[in-house]
Specification:
Layout lengths: L3 H15 L10 H27 L3 H8 L3 H8 L7 H10 L2 E8 L2 E8 L4 H17 L13 H9 L2
Antiparallel strand pairs: 1-2
Helix pairs in contact: 3-4, 6-7
């Protein structure tokens, strides 16, 4: 399996190879637009990956919390898809964070920032959520079974 960093390098090489310059050394407007779109998709994926790993949760747990599949999370993290605004909102809730996007001319910044709370309680909530998945919480009856970010916080707060 290719690591996230190795994939980024391979992706950057492919993008660089596909962007050819015009005879006068400039890029066509379409290629510039496409490159910016790819960069944004990559930055969004990197922001999801960074926050998920900060929480210490697996792709499968994030997928469960955000009502996605693990392959969808993987594709998103690798910059292979452009998420919709509703999906970004679900991801922010699933990762107990605030999503922000700053656009300033050609500069774009995206981030999932942790909600203000102690790192210790964040680690406990992440660990509790991972344990629930391994124990099979919510399986079988078709119901959520109270599993999710809010339930994990409640379990962590009540012992």
């Amino acid at each position: 399996m290719v690591s996230h960093a190795e994939w980024k390098l391979a992706r950057d090489r492919k993008v660089a190879e596909s962007i050819s310059e015009e005879k006068d050394g400039t890029e066509s407007a379409e290629r510039v637009r496409r490159r910016q779109e790819l960069d944004l998709a990559w930055d969004l994926g990197q922001a999801v990956y960074d926050r998920r790993t900060e929480l210490g949760i697996a792709q499968t747990e994030l997928a469960r919390r955000a009502r996605m599949t693990q392959p969808q999370v993987s594709k998103l993290e690798l910059g292979g898809t452009m998420p919709t605004v509703p999906l970004l909102a679900r991801l922010a809730r699933a990762m107990d964070s605030t999503f922000s996007m700053e656009l300033d001319g050609d500069t774009m910044r995206v981030a999932f920032t942790a909600h203000a709370r102690s790192e210790a309680s964040e680690s406990e909530a992440g660990a509790g959520a991972g344990t629930d998945v391994e124990a099979g919480a919510g399986a079988g009856d078709g119901a959520d079974g109270g599993a999710g970010p809010a339930a994990a916080e409640a379990r962590a707060a009540h012992g």
